[in-house]
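Q: What would this chain look like folded?
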Amino acid sequence: MKVKGMLAVFLSCLLLLVPRSVGGASISWNQRSFSVNGKPTMLIGGSFHYPRASPSEWPSVFSEMKANGLNLVQTYVFWDVHEPVESEYFFPSDPEDPANLVLFLQEAQKAGLYVHLRIGPYACAEWNNGGIPVWMTTEHDDVTFRTDDSFWLEKIEGFLDATLQVVSDANLMASQGGPIIMAQIENEYGNVEYAYGAGGARYVAKVADYAVNHPIGAEVPWVMCQQGVIASKGTSPPSNVISACNGYYCDNWIEDHIEAFPDQPHMFTENWPGWFQKWGEAVPHRPATDVAFSVARWFAKGGSFMNYYMAFGGTSLARQVGGPNIITSYDYDVQINEYGFRAEPKFSLTAALHQAIYDVQDTMFDAAPVAGTFNGTESCETHTYFAADSNKCSVWFSNYGEKNECVSDNGWEIPAWSVLVASGTATATSAGSAATSCGDLKFLYSTKQISESKPANKLSAATFDTKIENIELVSTVKVPTVDDTGDNVFAFDSPQEQLGMTKDKTDYLWYTAEYEAPAANDAAILEVEAGLAGGVSLMVFVNGELKVTERSVSDAQGQLEDVDWATHEALTIPVVEGINSIAILSMSTGLRNYGPYIERARVGILSDIRVDGKVLTNIVHKVGMDGEGSGGEVEEGGGESRDDGSLTFYKMNFGATAEGPLALDLTTMGKGFVTVNGHHIGRFWSVKANDECNPCDEADYTGSYNADNCRTGCGDYSQRYYKIPDTFLSGSDSDSPNEVVVFTEIGGDPAGIQLVSMSMVDN
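A: My prediction, written as structure tokens:
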């Protein structure tokens, strides 16, 4: 084994400790680790967003996180959840409310987990509008988000104050004996700072200063992720804010971080063990061996904090999901799946790795690892740690190449794209000198030990005795005309942007006008420009009949169009001689959650409406869908479904049951949303992925991963099963049936809807 570089003489060095808090738990850090009450520990966490699961699920998910070997949970605090109305903060105490942040943090502490609280204000998270309240856009059109804008700063400081006060009042800060040992301000801002110029640099400094000097927040270390360190990630934060890395791999970032922040520990705040999925896409899959390789390389090269984003993804209920065009399931292909089951082999392979890390962590706190190579091959690396106060040591053998050409001096084969962890005994070349070698090696773990992990499993759905019954058509939405009136009807000379009208309280906005045709024409040209920041689809009705459906998918296989902001549509419609009623329904599927200038995103029709070149005026706007908030019940206008099956509410029920977890199979329906007992469980869309798949071998996977690799389920529905949270159901001993309301935009067969019980089976 050849050592490269000089061995750090750590026995005579005292590493700088930066303390946080007095009384309660004390949090400190140096360049090697975080310490709680003076005891250093490797922090291995996982993300779990409280609104994406019912409170009854939280304890079991936390228990599974502990079983996986995690000691920390990371969550965003979603600004739009907690300030749904400007200046009215909402932090509920209802034990069944998934917005109950305090209860979530208390349950985490009961499970023995530390907490990394990411307060935002911007979350991303594939969450609607990135977690920023839509009223910031619709009520304040002159504000610029995420820069040195005085109004923006005022609002985010208010939210930060409110959040910290709530958790402090509940004694949840570490200094109070609570689980919160660190916090985060902003999120991946370095990825977009280039767009804001000097204002972005000032913003970084101001928000960092506000956080670390906050009378409550000063108790814990603050983090900024994807910020500074390298030039492409914007302005570096102040040195008292810890800079962190996000990605599939971050081990090569460590060297740059040492140069930029020599006194900071190395944090991997988001290691993506999977990826999110869009409508029309196959299921993303990251091989378990690649996840383990990423984690092991991180700790081998000096990392001390690593967090899976996600550990449990859950479900984006109601209209939470962003994107646009992201599916309702937020499973994320992680080790604890959407239904709370262990996903193998990812769960057991990572659990074994975590145990190996804990087994050797005492060797890792005193100095950076000593790097070396073996076999005379650059891709065959060792990283060796020596404990300062004992003869313990550990060696991390890596093969980051794609060939099986690495064999250690003691004969261990390190397969391509893998890491082997071993413990040993340190020896010195002469008495009294620092240890220079690690011998008597004991094998602990290999990221390729897939055969020793539990066999691969998969989600399975099964019908059972309880069935969907009593299906009935509740109402068919009446196509509006220019004569419609009501509190949700507004007339303007030209089309108005959708969010300004709906305030994002609904996915739907009607634009209705009249066109006088000089003669009948089966191919009149309707022209509009549609803003796609909400994944907009259009339905065009002429004289009450559906004539065109223009969706944000470009072919029958469901491939989503890659259009950022707007698209010009020239659609062919039939008109009769004389007055024609033109009604255009704009339908969104979640607001943009990533990128600069989110406040500039526009939805709906952004231009004049033209028919054969003539601009239509007196545009009557109708917000929402009749029956949308009442289970399809309307005072008038309901009736039999149209021949095309569009815009129809169906009602059905199923009996109380102890089976579970439960889901609805909605593949016989088109696109729309579902409620169960009045609770919105999310959007559905029975669109299929294309037929071309690139599955990967779990054991032999090599090479840098990206989300286009290894997808599965090609040719299948992007999402088939829609989870019903248990708190939405009637109790198993209840005499009341569970009522399901399905709204379909584009038809379908409600008789084919099935209630299924979910479980895991061997793959």
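The chain has a mean pLDDT of 92.
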